Automatic annotation (TrEMBL), chain A:
<protein>
    <submittedName>
        <fullName>Sarcosine oxidase subunit gamma</fullName>
    </submittedName>
</protein>
<dbReference type="GO" id="GO:1901053">
    <property type="term" value="P:sarcosine catabolic process"/>
</dbReference>
<dbReference type="InterPro" id="IPR006280">
    <property type="entry name" value="SoxG_het"/>
</dbReference>
<dbReference type="GO" id="GO:0008115">
    <property type="term" value="F:sarcosine oxidase activity"/>
</dbReference>
<dbReference type="InterPro" id="IPR027266">
    <property type="entry name" value="TrmE/GcvT-like"/>
</dbReference>
<dbReference type="InterPro" id="IPR007375">
    <property type="entry name" value="SoxG"/>
</dbReference>
<dbReference type="Pfam" id="PF04268">
    <property type="entry name" value="SoxG"/>
</dbReference>
TrEMBL record, chain B:
<dbReference type="InterPro" id="IPR029043">
    <property type="entry name" value="GcvT/YgfZ_C"/>
</dbReference>
<dbReference type="InterPro" id="IPR036188">
    <property type="entry name" value="FAD/NAD-bd_sf"/>
</dbReference>
<dbReference type="InterPro" id="IPR042204">
    <property type="entry name" value="2Fe-2S-bd_N"/>
</dbReference>
<dbReference type="InterPro" id="IPR006222">
    <property type="entry name" value="GCVT_N"/>
</dbReference>
<dbReference type="Pfam" id="PF07992">
    <property type="entry name" value="Pyr_redox_2"/>
</dbReference>
<comment type="similarity">
    <text>Belongs to the GcvT family.</text>
</comment>
<dbReference type="Pfam" id="PF13510">
    <property type="entry name" value="Fer2_4"/>
</dbReference>
TrEMBL record, chain C:
<dbReference type="GO" id="GO:0046653">
    <property type="term" value="P:tetrahydrofolate metabolic process"/>
</dbReference>
<dbReference type="Pfam" id="PF04267">
    <property type="entry name" value="SoxD"/>
</dbReference>
<protein>
    <submittedName>
        <fullName>Sarcosine oxidase subunit delta</fullName>
    </submittedName>
</protein>
<dbReference type="InterPro" id="IPR038561">
    <property type="entry name" value="SoxD_sf"/>
</dbReference>
<dbReference type="GO" id="GO:0008115">
    <property type="term" value="F:sarcosine oxidase activity"/>
</dbReference>
<dbReference type="InterPro" id="IPR006279">
    <property type="entry name" value="SoxD"/>
</dbReference>
Length: 192, 997, 98
C-alpha cells in the first residue's frame, strides 16, 4: 500500500529551531545568568598523532594540557580528556565539516544540539558556580581559559572560564532547566 | 528599662535599642544583641523548660552552644516552628515568639513531673528492662506511647517555606573558632597572603573575651581588640570571616562542614536571604581553636533553675549586662568561678558565699575575692540545692562530712573546671591523649593536616594561647604555600589562666547515695545511674553510654562526658584512660535538615529531563509519567477519556492508521572508528562485521555472566560509524559499560564512543500510513520498500533539516523513527502531526507503546528481564552469533546453571476469562490446590488489556515455559485463583506481515 | 568527600567526579570462551576484599572520563597512589600518604 508515497518528494520549507530555554536570563545584584545562543559543537576524539592535522583543519591548536582550552576566531577547543576535546564554534562555521576533510585517525561527532551554553557573569560568578560545583574556582586553580568537565549539583557540566568574572557552563539539553534553575538560585544567594 | 536584672552600665549592648518578645505568651522586653537567654534572665526568668525524662524544671546552664537545658520552640508562623532551639544561642529580634517544651498544661505545673516522683521506676536501662513482654505489645502499645511521650517540641505540619543555600569553598587555612586564639591564628595566616576562612558559632567574635573582663591585648581591652582584629581581617581580600557559623563536621582530607545561620536572628528576613547556608570547605590546613567548655559540679538537685556555670553568669554580666541573681552562691573546684564572683560583686550583686572544694587554694583571684569581703569556705561542698522552680538555697557541708549549713541564694554559680573542646579534632580521626596531671583529654596523635591551639589544646592562659595560635597560624599558612608574613604577634598584656578542677560526683553524691545529682542534664542521667550501669555489667564506656544514654542527647555530652567517664572509672576501679572516651561524631551541634538539603528541594531535588516535544505534548493534554529523570508522555486523553479509553483508542489507531510517538529518551551512542565493527562484535551477542551500511540490526548486550544487560536497534551509517540505541533507563550505564571494556580490555581498538542521546530528537511514526505521513516532508531519501526495507537507515533531510531516518518498528507495523537535531524536534513533530492529521493518525504515549510491543511479544529489558534472564530464556537465541569466538558474556552463557533444563523462559499467557487482566508481578503455580506455601514456578512480567486483540494479554517468565505451550497454569490472587493458558509471545500478526503492510 | 588524584588530569579532584569500578588487575582472558569453570569463577566472582591495601579501578567519570587504577587503604580510607589504566601493579608502594 501507499506506493504513491514511496517516491522521493521535495522537502517542505525549513522549520524553526527552538533552542531549550531560549533567551532566559536572570539578573542578581552581582551576577547574571543567561542562556547563550546556539553554537556549532563537535565531540572530537583522536590519538596524539592526529592532532597536528586536526588542529590545522580546525584552525585552532588542540590543547594537550589537562584543564585548558584554546580559542581562535570564535572557535574554542576544550581539553576534556587525554584524547577528547569539545569544540565550540560561535562564529557560525561548521567544525564537523572541517574535520571531515582530515584523513588522520579521529572521531568527530556533531553535538550542537546535545549541549546548551549558559553564561554566568559578574563579580559573584565563581561563588554562584561553587554553589554546586566542588572544584576550586580561584584564579590560581582555575584561571581564565581553564576548562573542565565536572559536576554542578546533580548534573554533569563542562565549565569554561571565559574571563576573571565569567564562566560558560555547558550541559546537556534536558538538564538545562535544572542547571539554569540551580544557577539562578545560587546567583540570588551569591549576592548576599 | 523595666528588666529588673539588667545592670545599668554593665555589658556591651546599646540600651536604647529595645526589642519586645514573648515567652509562653507573656511579653517581655530585651535589647538588640541579647540572646533569648540573656533577655529572659534580664527579666528574672530562669525557669524555661522541663527535662526530657523526669520533667524536672530547668533553667539556663550555660551561655553558649553547649546548653543542655534551655531548649525552646521558636515560632515565626504556622510553617516556621523550630523546636529545640537553644535559648542561649538564639539571638533576640523584635517580635520573637518562644514557647517552652515538654510540659503540660504549663511550665510551672507539669503533669509529666510525676515521672520525677516515680523516678525509681525510670532508672538506667529502664526501657530495655520494662517493655520486654509481651512481645506484641512493643509494636502496638509501648512504642507508640513512648514515642508520644518522648521527643521535645512540636514539628511544623507545613512544608518549610524558607530556602537554604550551599557553597563549596577552598582555602589554604581554615580557622575554626574565633576567640583570642582563633583570631591570632587567622591574623598570622592572613598576613602571608593565603586564603583564610575564619568561622565562629557566635554572633560576635571573641570567645572567652566576651566574659574575661580583665583581658588586655595590644594595649586594649580584650574584647575590643578582638573586634578591631576582625575588622582588619574582614578588610583583607584573602580572608572570609563567618560569624554565626558552626563547624559541625570534620571529614576526610580537611573537608569541613560549616553551617552559617544567615537570617534566624532577623525580625523579618527578606525572601532573598537564605535561612542557613551550608559551607563545604576544603582546606589545605585547619587550625582548630574551639576553646574549652566549663563543667558543672555534680551534687544533689544541681539542675534547679538558677544553678549555672560560673562562666555563663559572667558572660551574662559582662557581655549582656545581666545579673543572674541578687544573692548568688558559688560552688567551685577551680579558680575561674572566683572571677565570676568578683565581677558580680563589683557590679553590686551580693555573693552569699564561695564554697570551694579545695583545701587550701591560693592565688590572686582568691585574694581579690577575700579583699572584696566575700565569704570563702575551703574544703567544703554544696551537697544540695534547695527550691524547685528556682533555686532558693544551698546546703553546705564539710567535704568529709559534718554539720550542714543552709545558705539562702537565688542562683548558684559552679565550676568543676574546663574541658578542652576536642570534638572536631576527634572527628578528624585524631586520637586524644589523657594528661594525668591536668586530668583532661587533649589532642594526641593527628590524622590530618590540622593543629589545635589554645584552650582546646589544653593550653592554659590567654597569653600562652595567643602565642601558640599565632605561631600555628603562620606555620599553617607557610605549609600551605604562603609567604612570610609581615605582621606583628598580638601582645597579651593581661589575661587569665585557669587551673585544674575536678571530675565526677562531688561530696553527697558519691557511691551509695541516691540523690539526683545530674551528670547529663538533657538526658536526665544522674551519678547514680552511671554507677548502676557499671553494677549491672557495663564495663566499657561505650556500653555505659548506651545503657544510661549519658552524652547521647543533642548536646552530645559537652558538659557531661568527662563527669560520666570519671564516675564509671571510679566505680570500675580503673584509671580514666583505661575506661576510654567515647568517640565524638558529627554534627557538633544539631544541624537542620534544610541546611543539609540546601538547594536540592522542589524542582532542584533531582533534575527533571524533558524532551524537545514536551511543550507540544503538554498543550495536547498529555499525562506524563516519570521514567528515570525523564518526563515522558504517558497517554493523550481526549475529552471524557480515562487512561484505558485513551490507550485503547491510541493502540487501535496505530494499527489501523498510524501514530506518532516521542522516542527521544532512548539512549543513543555513536560508535566511530576503523575498529567500530570489531568493537560491536565484542560488546553485542550479534554479528556486526557483515551488516551493510544503511542497514539496522536488533542487538543484545550481555554482562560477562551471560545475562541480558541491554538491547536496542543499531544502524550502520558507514563502515566505520554505528548509531547505537539503548533503553531509556540504560543509557548512562551502557555507555559506562562500553567505555569500561573499550578503555580497559580492548584499548587496542581504534574506536570512540560519543553519547548522542540528546543530539537527536526521535519521533517514531508507526502504522500502515507511516510512510504516507513522512514522505511528503522528506528530501533526498527513497522510501520505497525496495530502496529502504524494514531495518534500514538513511541520512537526508526532513522539513529542510538533517535527519537520520530509521525504518524500524516497535509495534509490528510498518514504522519509522525520525531522528532530527533536538532543537528542531518540536517543529518537525508539528509538521509530521499535521501530515498525520490528514490520515487520522494519533499521538500515543508510553502506555500504548508498551501495549503495542507486548502484542508483538517484543521484550522490554528491565521489565520482562530482571538481570537473571539469558537470550535463550527470552526466546532471543537467534540474536546470538553462533560462530563468534568472543563477546562479552560468551563464557557466562555456557555456565552449567545457564544451560540447565527447567530455566524460566519467557512465554505468553492468556487468561481463561479474556476480560481478566493479570497483575504484573503476580506469581504463577502449576497446582492451585497444593498447600501453602505453594511452589511458585514463575511470574507475570507484562500484562495489559489489548483492545486490538479484544482480550487481555500477558508475558511471563515460567519454569520450562516453552515446553508448557497450551498448559493451564494458575495465578493465585487475594480474590481468587486465575486460570491462564501458556501461549506463544506474539498476539498480533504472528507472521510479521504488517511490517510491510 | 575524598580528594582523588586523577593520573590523566594530573590533579586532585573531588570525589563527586569519580566512580569506583571494583577491583583492579583482574584481566579478562583473551580466550574467555575456552576458560575453565574454576578460572571463570575466579575471574568473574571472586574478589579480594582485604582489610588494608586494595588495588581498585576508578573512573573519572565526570571529569576526563578515563578509567585508572588506585591503591587505597580500606582501614584508613586513604589513597596511597593512583596510576593509569594498563600500567602494571606497582612493585613498591610509596610511604603511607598523609
Amino acid at each position: 500500500m501507499a506506493k504513491a508515497a514511496a517516491k522521493t518528494n521535495a522537502a517542505a520549507a525549513s522549520v524553526e529551531r527552538r533552542p531549550a530555554l531560549a533567551g532566559r536570563t536572570l539578573s542578581a545584584p552581582s551576577v547574571k545568568v543567561e542562556m547563550l545562543p546556539p553554537a556549532e559543537r563537535i565531540s572530537l576524539r583522536a590519538p596524539e598523532a592526529s592532532l597536528a592535522a586536526l588542529s590545522k583543519a580546525l584552525g585552532v591548536t588542540l590543547p594537550v594540557k589537562p584543564k585548558t582550552s584554546a580559542t581562535k576566531d570564535g572557535r574554542t577547543a576544550l581539553w576534556l580528556g587525554p584524547d577528547e576535546w569539545l569544540i565550540i564554534d560561535e562564529a557560525g562555521n561548521d567544525p564537523l565539516a572541517d574535520c571531515a576533510k582530515v584523513s588522520a585517525l579521529h572521531s568527530a561527532v556533531g553535538i550542537s544540539h546535545r549541549n546548551v551554553g549558559i553564561s554566568v557573569a559578574g563579580p559573584a560568578a565563581a561563588v554562584t558556580v561553587n554553589s554546586g560545583c566542588p572544584q576550586d574556582l580561584s584564579l590560581d586553580a582555575f584561571p581564565v581559559g581553564a576548562a573542565s568537565r565536572t559536576i554542578l549539583g546533580k548534573a554533569e557540566i563542562v565549565l569554561l572560564r571565559t574571563a576573571e568574572d565569567a564562566f560558560r557552563v555547558e550541559c546537556w539539553r534536558s538538564f538545562s532547566d535544572y542547571v539554569f534553575t540551580l544557577l539562578s538560585e545560587a546567583a540570588g544567594d551569591a549576592a548576599n | 528599662m523595666s528588666a529588673a536584672f539588667r545592670i545599668p552600665g554593665a555589658g556591651r549592648l546599646k540600651q536604647a535599642k529595645t526589642a519586645s518578645f514573648s515567652f509562653d505568651d507573656k511579653s517581655y522586653t530585651g535589647i538588640e544583641g541579647d540572646t533569648l537567654a540573656s533577655a529572659l534572665l534580664a527579666n528574672g526568668v530562669h525557669l524555661v523548660g522541663r527535662s526530657f525524662k523526669y520533667h524536672r524544671p530547668r533553667g539556663f546552664l550555660s551561655a553558649g552552644a553547649e546548653e543542655p537545658n534551655a531548649l525552646v520552640q521558636i515560632v515565626r508562623d504556622d510553617a516556621r516552628k523550630t523546636p529545640n532551639v537553644r535559648a542561649t544561642v538564639q539571638e533576640l529580634y523584635d517580635g520573637l515568639t518562644a514557647n517552652s517544651q515538654n510540659r503540660w498544661p504549663s511550665l510551672a505545673f507539669d503533669i509529666g513531673a510525676v515521672n520525677d516522683i516515680a523516678s525509681p521506676l525510670f532508672s538506667a536501662g529502664f526501657y530495655y528492662k520494662t517493655f520486654m513482654w509481651p512481645k506484641s505489645a512493643w509494636k502496638n502499645l509501648y512504642e507508640p506511647k513512648i514515642r508520644a511521650a518522648a521527643g521535645l517540641g512540636v514539628s511544623p505540619e507545613k512544608p518549610d517555606p524558607d530556602h537554604y543555600a550551599a557553597r563549596y569553598a577552598h582555602c589554604e587555612v581554615l580557622v575554626l573558632g574565633g576567640g583570642a586564639a582563633g583570631i591570632a591564628a587567622a591574623l598570622a595566616a592572613a598576613e602571608t597572603g593565603v586564603r583564610v576562612i575564619l568561622a565562629d558559632e557566635q554572633a560576635e567574635f571573641g570567645g572567652s573575651l566576651r566574659f574575661e573582663s580583665g583581658a588586655r591585648i595590644d594595649g586594649e581591652n580584650g574584647y575590643a581588640w578582638a573586634q578591631a582584629a576582625i575588622a582588619r581581617l574582614k578588610a583583607m581580600d584573602n580572608v572570609r570571616v563567618l560569624s554565626r557559623t558552626t563547624a559541625f563536621g570534620y571529614y576526610a582530607q580537611n573537608f569541613v562542614g560549616l553551617v552559617e545561620r544567615v537570617s534566624d536572628h532577623l525580625k523579618s528576613p527578606g525572601r532573598e536571604l537564605a535561612r542557613e547556608r551550608l559551607w563545604q570547605v576544603r582546606a589545605n590546613r585547619v587550625v582548630i581553636a574551639t576553646g574549652a567548655i566549663e563543667r558543672h559540679m555534680v551534687f544533689a538537685n544541681n539542675d534547679r533553675p538558677g544553678v549555672m556555670l560560673a562562666s555563663a553568669a559572667r558572660t551574662y554580666l559582662n557581655h549582656y549586662g545581666v545579673a543572674v541573681g541578687k544573692n548568688v552562691g558559688v560552688y567551685t573546684a577551680n579558680d575561674s568561678a572566683y572571677a565570676a564572683a568578683i565581677d558580680l560583686k563589683k557590679a553590686g550583686v551580693n555573693i552569699a558565699a564561695i564554697v570551694d572544694l579545695r583545701d587550701n587554694p591560693a592565688g590572686p583571684v582568691i585574694d581579690e575575692a577575700r579583699a572584696l569581703g566575700i565569704e570563702i569556705n575551703f574544703g567544703r561542698a554544696v551537697v544540695s540545692a534547695g527550691g524547685k522552680l528556682r533555686v532558693s538555697s544551698m546546703t553546705v557541708q564539710p567535704k568529709n562530712g559534718g554539720g550542714e549549713r543552709t545558705i539562702p541564694v537565688d542562683a548558684i554559680l559552679m565550676s568543676a573546671g574546663w574541658t578542652p573542646s576536642v570534638h572536631l579534632f576527634s572527628q578528624s580521626r585524631g586520637k586524644v591523649a589523657f594528661n594525668d596531671e591536668t586530668r583532661r583529654f587533649v589532642p594526641g596523635t593527628y590524622a590530618q593536616d590540622c593543629v589545635s591551639v589554645g584552650a582546646c589544646n589544653g593550653t592554659d592562659g590567654l597569653a600562652a594561647s595567643v602565642d601558640e595560635a599565632y605561631a600555628a597560624g603562620a606555620k599553617a599558612a607557610k605549609d600551605a604555600g604562603g609567604q612570610a608574613g609581615k605582621g606583628a604577634k598580638p601582645k597579651v598584656d593581661a589575661g587569665e589562666s585557669w587551673s585544674r578542677g575536678m571530675l565526677g560526683a562531688g561530696p553527697g553524691a558519691g557511691p551509695g547515695t541516691t540523690v539526683k545529682a545530674f551528670v547529663d542534664f538533657q538526658n536526665d542521667v544522674t551519678a547514680k545511674d552511671i554507677r548502676q550501669a557499671v553494677h549491672e555489667g557495663m564495663h566499657s564506656i561505650e556500653h555505659v553510654k548506651r545503657f544510661t544514654t549519658n552524652g547521647m542527647a543533642t548536646d552530645q555530652g559537652k558538659t557531661s562526658n568527662m563527669h560520666g567517664l570519671a564516675i564509671a572509672a571510679e566505680e570500675l576501679g580503673k584509671p580514666i584512660p583505661q575506661v576510654g572516651l567515647t568517640t565524638f561524631r558529627a554534627p557538633y551541634t544539631p544541624v537542620t535538615f534544610g541546611s543539609i538539603v540546601g538547594h536540592a528541594r522542589g524542582a532542584l531535588f533531582d533534575p527533571t529531563r524533558r524532551t524537545a516535544t514536551h511543550g507540544w505534548a503538554a498543550s495536547q493534554g498529555a499525562v506524563f509519567e516519570d521514567v528515570g529523570h525523564w518526563k515522558r508522555a504517558w497517554y493523550f486523553p481526549k475529552a471524557g477519556e480515562d487512561m484505558h479509553k485513551a490507550v485503547d483508542r491510541e493502540c487501535v489507531t496505530v494499527r489501523k492508521v498510524g501514530g506518532l510517538f516521542d522516542a527521544s529518551t532512548l539512549g543513543k551512542i555513536e560508535v566511530v572508528g576503523p575498529d567500530a565493527a570489531k568493537f560491536m562484535e565484542l560488546l553485542y551477542t550479534n554479528p556486526w562485521e557483515k551488516l551493510e551500511t544503511g542497514r539496522c540490526r536488533y542487538g543484545i548486550m550481555l554482562r560477562e555472566d551471560g545475562f541480558i544487560y541491554d538491547d536496542g536497534v543499531v544502524g550502520r551509517l558507514a563502515p566505520d560509524r554505528f548509531h547505537v540505541t539503548t533503553t531509556t533507563g540504560g543509557a548512562p550505564r551502557v555507555m559506562h559499560h562500553m567505555e569500561d571494556y573499550l578503555q580497559t580490555e580492548f584499548p587496542h581498538l581504534n574506536v570512540w564512543l560519543t553519547s548522542i542521546t540528546e543530539q537527536w530528537a526521535v519521533i517514531a511514526v508507526q502504522g500502515p500510513k507511516s510512510r504516507d505521513i513522512i514522505a511528503p516532508l522528506v528530501e533526498g531519501i527513497d522510501m520505497s520498500d525496495e530502496a529502504m526495507p524494514h531495518m534500514s537507515v538513511r541520512e537526508g533531510k526532513i522539513c529542510g533539516v538533517p535527519t537520520r531516518l530509521f525504518r524500524m518498528s516497535f509495534t509490528g507495523e510498518r514504522g519509522f523513527e525520525v531522528n532530527v537535531p533536538a532543537d528542531y524536534g518540536e517543529a518537525v513533530w508539528e509538521a509530521l502531526w499535521a501530515e498525520g492529521q490528514k490520515h487520522g493518525a494519533t499521538a500515543y504515549g508510553t502506555e500504548s507503546m508498551h501495549v503495542l510491543r507486548a502484542e508483538k511479544g517484543y521484550i522490554i529489558v528491565g521489565q520482562d528481564t530482571d538481570g537473571t534472564v539469558t537470550p535463550n530464556d527470552a526466546g532471543l537465541d537467534w540474536a546470538v552469533g553462533k560462530k563468534k569466538t568472543d563477546f562479552v558474556g560468551i563464557r557466562g552463557l555456557t555456565r552449567s546453571d545457564l544451560v540447565a533444563k527447567g530455566r524460566k523462559q519467557l512465554v505468553g499467557l492468556k487468561t481463561k476469562d479474556p476480560k481478566v487482566v493479570l497483575e504484573e508481578g503476580a506469581q504463577i503455580v502449576a497446582d492451585p490446590k497444593q498447600p501453602i506455601p505453594m511452589k511458585m514456578i514463575g511470574h507475570v512480567t507484562s500484562s495489559y488489556w489489548s483492545e486490538n486483540c479484544g482480550r487481555s494479554i500477558a508475558l511471563a517468565l515460567v519454569a520450562g515455559g516453552r515446553d508448557r505451550m497450551g498448559e493451564t497454569l494458575y495465578v493465585p490472587m487475594p480474590n481468587g485463583t486465575i486460570e491462564v493458558e501458556v501461549t506463544g509471545m506474539v498476539f498480533v500478526d504472528e507472521k510479521g506481515e504488517r511490517l510491510n503492510g | 568527600m575524598l580528594l582523588i588524584r586523577c593520573p590523566y588530569c594530573d590533579e586532585e579532584r573531588p570525589e563527586l567526579e569519580f566512580r569506583n569500578a571494583g577491583e583492579a588487575h583482574i584481566a579478562r582472558s583473551t580466550n574467555i570462551a575456552g576458560e575453565s569453570d574454576d578460572d571463570f569463577e575466579k575471574f568473574f566472582f571472586i574478589r579480594a576484599n582485604p582489610k588494608g591495601v586494595i588495588y581498585e579501578r576508578w573512573r573519572h567519570i565526570h571529569g576526563c572520563a578515563r578509567f585508572f587504577n588506585a591503591v587505597r587503604d580500606t582501614v584508613t580510607d586513604k589513597f596511597v597512589m593512583t596510576y593509569k589504566a594498563g600500567e602494571p601493579k606497582p612493585a613498591k608502594l610509596p610511604g603511607a600518604a598523609k
